[in-house]
Amino acid sequence: MSPVDPYDRLRPSTDIEECECEVVTHLLLIIGWMSENPISCGECRREVDPERLRLTTKEVDLVAGWNVVSNSLYWLWLDSGEYEEYAKARLSDPTSQINTDGMKVAEMLSARLPTRLWYYSDTDDGTLIECPVCARPLDTNVKWGTGDCPVCKIRM
Ligand SMILES: [Zn+2]
Ligand SMILES: [Zn+2]
């Protein structure tokens, strides 16, 4: 039996365009990315293969475990049924498990490369101008998303 490659847990089953930047300088950990790998390049926003980051098996498991829950909550929200309000409340609450665990995963990845946790926001509710965590004004000078909180290290 051939050993299972631990990186496979973070490798999409479908063909995706992977980050091809020569050097990755910062990362986005994207909530509800709907793919097996929520780690994206901060420059091109394409997925970064976990092997490039030399993640340990334990780290891969942490990212993959968080990602499954994050995607599940997104499905419940998008499904617009009985669970929609519940999922939205969990995703919007900075103290919810998905967000606090996301911060921990982003912190872990930041030991490799500076990482922002991509925060949930419902575009139907308008664009946030303040950080949902610390209420400071968001830095809107960002390549991806609508704003960045350098204090909380989150991106919207
Ligand atoms: Zn890239
Ligand atoms: Zn903040």
Give the SSE layout.
Elements: E1 27-30, E2 39-41, H1 57-78, H2 84-92, H3 97-110, E3 115-118, E4 148-149, E5 154-155
Parallel strand pairs: 1-3, 3-5
Antiparallel strand pairs: 1-2, 4-5
One zinc ion binds at residues 131, 133-134, 136, 149, 151-152.
Radius of gyration: 15 Å
Count of domains: 1
Portion of residues in helices? 25-40%
Shape: globular
Number of strands: 5
Ligands, deduplicated = zinc ion
Q: SSE order in H/E notation?
A: EEHHHEEE
Characterize the main sheet. Answer: 5 strands, mixed
Estimate what percentage of residues fall within beta strands.
5-15%
Number of distinct helices: 3
Question: Low-confidence parts, pLDDT < 50 over ≥5 residues?
Answer: none
- Round the mean pLDDT to the nearest integer and report it: 94
Distance between the termini: 44 Å
Strand order of the largest sheet: 2-1-3-5-4
Helix/strand structural class: alpha/beta
Describe the structure.
- This protein has 156 residues and is an alpha/beta fold.
- It has one domain.
- The chain has three helices and five strands.
- Strands 2-1-3-5-4 form a five-stranded mixed β-sheet, with helices on one face.
- The structure holds zinc ion (2 copies).
Using brief descriptors, characterize the structure shown.
single chain, alpha/beta, binds zinc ion, 3 helices, 156 residues
Short characterization:
By secondary structure, this protein is of the alpha/beta class. Helices cover 29% and strands 10% of the residues.
